[in-house]
Amino acid sequence: MEQPRSGTQIVFPPFRLDLDTQRLLRESSPVPLTPKAFALLHFLVARSHRLVTKDEILRALWAGTRVQDAVLKVAIREIRKALGDRATAPHYIETSPRRGYRFVGKIDSTGRRRDKASKRTGLVGRGPEMARLQEWLEGARRGERQVVFVTGEGGIGKTAVVQALLERAASEPGVWVARGACLEQYGSGEAYLPVLEGIGRLARGPHGESLVALLRRHAPTWLAQMPSLVSDTERETLGREVIGATGERMVRELAEAVEALDDKTTLVLALEDLQWSDYSTLDLISCLARRREPAGLLLIGTFRPSDVLLGHHPLRAVTRELRMRRQCHELPLGYLSQAEVAEYLAARFPDTRLSGAMAGPIHGRTGGNPLFLVNVVDYLVGRNLIGAAAAPDPGVVLREIESVIPESLREMIEKQIDRLADEEQGVLEAASVAGIEFPALAVAAGLEIDLARPESICDGLARRGQFLRPTGVRGLPDGTVTARYEFIHPMYQDVLYHRVPPARRLRLHRKIGERGIAVYGPRAGEIASELAVHFERAGDLRGAVDHLRRAADNASRRSAHREAIGHLTRAHDLVDRLPEPDRGDLQMLILEQVGTARRSMGDMQEAAGDFEALVGLARERGRADREARGLFYYGSAVSWFDRTRFQEAADQAAALARRLEDDLLRAHTRGYSAYWSLLLRGFRPEDAEASAAAIAAARRSGDRLLLSQHIGRSSYFECLQSRYGAGCEAAQEGMRLALEVGDAFDYLLCRFFLAWGLLHGGRWGQALGVLEE
User: Fold this and answer.
1) Quick check: helix, strand or coil at residue 203?
2) pTM, rounded to two decimals
3) pLDDT tens, position by position, 57-101
4) DSSP characters for 213-249?
């Protein structure tokens, strides 16, 4: 049973959970509770009166980590102490021995209250906008898909408006709320980043089981991107589907999953800061908007129009086309009027007659920018000029506004920062280097201090509503459990980041990047794009290049080949800044990856150009091994549109094979030449022998990439000799190896050979199954 809730309050007298500030309160007094214990209490309350197993808790709150039951017991003990509860006579948390826990407290659906922090951030002057959003939400609940873009400049209140709608939606039965944000990154953004973030958050909440079941049934390639939600066995099974999946399939799967929601369920998906979005996310938004099937979907995207126009971002073309076809709505936000500023002051300070006298000067200073307005008022409160028990002196307040308060929002934020303690400033500056959203562990790594201290400081700032808000607790691959936070507005992060002296900023990036590698270990590839940013800004260009190449591999596995090419283009730019001895090999590796990505996109002419450049660079540097590899890829690409150039590549490879002294390379290029010969001249026994020799040499060398390429093509030789069983086995091994090395083109080619062998071997039903996967 889900908790009754209103906005961000869950009440079980005399306690209440404030989900905005991540606090447990007794009446109006905060009750100390660590972020981990708060997350567990929220998880249990959300499943009120239902037995929640230990495995379910560990899977949701400590996903991807190995922790003992004792960790869970410690958190339960802390919750009971905070609630004054006893295990032997529970009023709130009941233990089911060796099974799990159950929240048995009575939740009061009528005790809906908002605290002072809620009043501070309450919406003012957005009534018409909220009414339109509510109309669109109701349309989605009727099965009429809705795509809405909330637009406006920085500080205008886009996030506040969307958050207010999300809180309202979450209180309605049958509404699933997912929220993700794009991040400003060098090069291409991570493919589907905001969507994966939103779905991941939703999966860790009360609707997690239903969502995972839906993805398993309709969108397995998406479930494969979130390994912490599934078992090791299922993760391995899903992994085989991802590399063979096209970007179109991923988009189609999620669209069909949304349409498969029952008529009592509505998905609200909010994607913020689309001015930094990746291409794949835009493709998904476009698809979701254009489909005509009924769907209980409200997709809300926010962006800054000026950034989109100045940056020539493809979002401009997407929104223009959707508007032209009447497949989306746009909700532009303007600045607040003087009357609305007065309304804000009256709501925030109901016991003082402040609004009439102060609204004009404050509006004049801030221009009605909501973020600037809040910062100015916070500054006045901090100086005890308003909000104190005594009535404010209008003359003093007016002089302060006119002479002391800065004229720009950035300067105002600087003033707010300067009023913090030195330790708080240091933590916030390190956090700004870690990112717009960050784990407290990253701050601890940058400052080289124990995790408890930055976690405590961030928690204190979030409780006061200053700069940060909590986003939950997350388990990391090395077993560490850390609280996560995000900056309330990107401008806070930007101002803090540029306060950090360059040398200190470089050191922080390096420490955070190194700790990320240590924490994630073999799974560091999962955060490759994030690590690339840290290492580049730390001045470690070689490390940045390595992580950009891994980020490109991640994108290719999601069939996000444009993003992969973007990462590799950035990597190539960085290679040009490396010392000469390191350039050549990296340039060749990058050219090979770029060509492979274009080949997977089906753009064979562009791919041929990349592989031709690889061959030229290899010859220039005397690297026959790279030349041989490049010739094979070049020949494979041009074979689709120019048989003459295909023949030339084959002849060059054969000549190269004859003069090479390296047995592996000789066998390698002979194997390539044998495959070309098969395509050009038909089957010859000597070509089959050359293919077998290449496989044997690749096995001896342990080079899985070479082995996957040769063994996959050998299945064709086997089938031409009517050895269909052996051909199918070779194709299956080639598919498995292609999965391991991340070569989507060879995976699909081997799958084609498998279907071909099954068909000619008389196993028609199996062949059809392979083709339909």
Assistant:
1) helix
2) 0.73
3) 877 777 555 556 677 888 898 899 888 888 888 888 988 887 889
4) HHHHHH-HHHHTT-GGGS-HHHHHHHHHHHTT--HHH
